[in-house]
């Protein structure tokens, strides 16, 4: 059935002079109908309009403006930035090539690169000049989209990136091993396994509490690390109470997080978001999800 609808959409677009690969139409259609439960008629309308907008954007005659990340304060602008790749997240959508964070001396911004843009892959800790990216605004923050008109050039220099808090909105889908009560080396504060510190061997330890988990926003996944104070609040018990009363803290954490939507705010360190603030929200409604995928992420 999906295949027939895809062909219908492809024919409609062809009549308007728009040529689109079958897999691009199908991936977007399946996302709306199968993952978001959108009615067929509405999904067809959304996908058709998306590709018509795509062609319009590609034909816009606009000279990109070279800017610093902190100066991106308007959506729909064509910009050029020079920045360092800080993080690459695993993408769950087959049409997305890469998604991550790029930063310069003034700030950090999220970027999305689609497979159909045919751009080279970016690598963490490398510096690039990204020409003709398109700015967008979603969930209170600006981001950039790398489309088929974007040009990427790697340059041989380093950038000292300004550190700032970022936010990630999604559902908690997994609690990693190494969560709950752990023990840390009294000399280096690293977590130890079976009383053995990788640096100092068998040592005395201090107890600690943390959560290592995975969040999913429907397009990418993000590893998060929640430290003791926030974990105690989620577990509704202090570390001392958990130890003395032998509380099943992992069960409490799973009940508090798994399957629920949160906004996590904090600092990006390696592949982890070190969470400083965590706020539960209702599930992202369909109209916002559609806007995110089909309008905000124009190719």
Automatic annotation (TrEMBL):
<protein>
    <submittedName>
        <fullName>Replication factor A</fullName>
    </submittedName>
</protein>
<dbReference type="GO" id="GO:0000724">
    <property type="term" value="P:double-strand break repair via homologous recombination"/>
</dbReference>
<keyword id="KW-0238">DNA-binding</keyword>
<dbReference type="InterPro" id="IPR012340">
    <property type="entry name" value="NA-bd_OB-fold"/>
</dbReference>
<dbReference type="GO" id="GO:0010212">
    <property type="term" value="P:response to ionizing radiation"/>
</dbReference>
<dbReference type="GO" id="GO:0003677">
    <property type="term" value="F:DNA binding"/>
</dbReference>
<dbReference type="InterPro" id="IPR051231">
    <property type="entry name" value="SOSS-B"/>
</dbReference>
